[in-house]
């Protein structure tokens, strides 16, 4: 393993995405040089040619070439359009993680990063992932806005209180790399960083074994489901009429008052904290709020449990 510490002006390219981002930046810089150099050269040439006291001919030019004049607006516009399309397609990729991604939960707070693996392994400020495997992070903050930044992957995403954001990547080199907080979040913002450790598949399995987790996220969520009394109403043999949650994850939920919503992480989180906001059609708005009682980490576990019912 080659630790990459210290100031890095050009960090390693840890993924295909990182290579492509670098290509966009290099090519765009080259384009700018090509467009800007002639302008500066012409400015210097004319400044010298038409300096005060020079004998250069200053009479108005008789000829006018509209095509030439239009070309220096249209050509750079088209070239910039190519870059717009190229960069936009890279950007859209960021929002389309492969379906077989390994899901890892991230909870940020002043001033640490908490990572939780599906098997329940937890770590702080260090993230272990397997090489050549798509990893999808579901992220939320307990307090202020943070931003998770992996320079070697060329990706960065704000982590917000009250809302899940996502990030995915596929690291293709084993090693240890930096991760940082990239949004000023208080006194220790500068120290809110750590390491991304990319392991070969066997190494990752070994790490999972050593990291010591007694229960998977879904199992921990099931325990919470009983602890908070969710099972009292949502359980199979409950006397209260509440939606059965088996298979609800990812499916459309018709809402009271019209419309449907896909039961994703956001919807489940909102249903626990703000149950009156989007009530499922055919049910009374009798669910109490759990705002202030369930931590973000517990919410993610509850979501993992509900996902596991699908
Ligand atoms: Cu968290 Cu800056």
Description:
It is a single chain. The protein is an alpha+beta fold and 310 residues long. The chain has 3 domains: 11-46 and 67-93; 102-211, Cupredoxins -  blue copper proteins (Immunoglobulin-like); 217-308, Cytochrome Bc1 Complex, Chain D, domain 2, CATH 1.10.760. The chain has 7 helices and 12 strands. The chain has helices at 16-49, 66-93, 201-210, 217-227, 230-234, 265-273, 296-308, and strands at 102-109, 112-116, 122-124, 126-130, 135-141, 146-150, 155-159, 165-169, 175-181, 194-199, 252-254, 260-262. The strands form 3 sheets. It has a 5-stranded mixed β-sheet, with helices on one face. Strands 4-10-9-6-7 form a 5-stranded mixed β-sheet. Strands 11-12 form a two-stranded antiparallel sheet. A hairpin with a 4-residue loop joins strand 6 (146-150) and strand 7. The two termini are 39 Å apart. The model has no long low-confidence stretch (mean pLDDT 87). Bound molecules: dinuclear copper ion. Dinuclear copper ion binds at residues 111, 146, 181, 183-185, 189, 192. Dinuclear copper ion is lined by residues 111, 146, 181, 183-185, 189, 192.
Poorly predicted sequence stretches spanning 5 or more consecutive residues? none
- Ligands, ions, cofactors: dinuclear copper ion
Percent of residues in helices? 25-40%
For CATH, the homologous superfamily of the largest domain is named as Cupredoxins -  blue copper proteins
Mean pLDDT: 87
């Amino acid at each position: 393993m080659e630790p990459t510490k210290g100031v890095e002006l050009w960090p390693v390219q840890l993924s295909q995405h990182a290579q492509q981002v670098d290509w966009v930046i290099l090519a765009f810089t080259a384009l700018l040089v090509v467009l800007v150099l002639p302008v500066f050269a012409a400015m210097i040439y004319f400044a010298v040619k038409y300096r005060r006291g020079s004998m250069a001919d200053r009479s108005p030019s008789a000829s006018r070439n509209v095509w030439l004049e239009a070309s220096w607006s249209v050509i750079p516009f088209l070239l910039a359009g190519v870059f717009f399309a190229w960069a936009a397609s890279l950007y859209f990729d960021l929002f389309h993680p492969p379906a077989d991604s390994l899901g890892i939960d991230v909870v940020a707070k002043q001033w640490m990063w908490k990572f939780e693996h599906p098997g329940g392994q937890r770590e702080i400020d260090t993230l272990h992932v397997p090489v050549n495997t798509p990893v999808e992070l579901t992220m939320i903050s307990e307090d202020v806005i943070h931003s998770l930044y992996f320079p070697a992957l060329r990706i960065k995403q704000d982590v917000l209180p009250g809302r899940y954001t996502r990030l995915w990547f596929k690291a293709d080199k084993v090693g240890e790399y930096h991760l940082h907080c990239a949004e000023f979040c208080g006194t220790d913002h500068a120290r809110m960083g750590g390491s991304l450790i990319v392991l070969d598949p066997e190494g990752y399995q070994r790490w999972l074994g050593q990291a010591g987790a007694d229960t998977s996220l879904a199992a921990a969520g099931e325990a919470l489901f009983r602890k908070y009394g969710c099972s009292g109403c949502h359980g199979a043999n409950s006397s209260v009429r509440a939606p059965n949650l088996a298979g609800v994850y990812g499916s459309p939920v018709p809402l009271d008052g019209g419309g449907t919503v896909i039961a994703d992480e956001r919807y489940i989180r909102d249903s626990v904290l703000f149950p009156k906001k989007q009530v499922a059609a055919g049910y009374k708005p009798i669910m109490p709020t759990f705002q202030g009682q369930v931590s973000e980490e517990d919410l993610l576990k509850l979501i993992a449990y509900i996902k596991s019912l699908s």
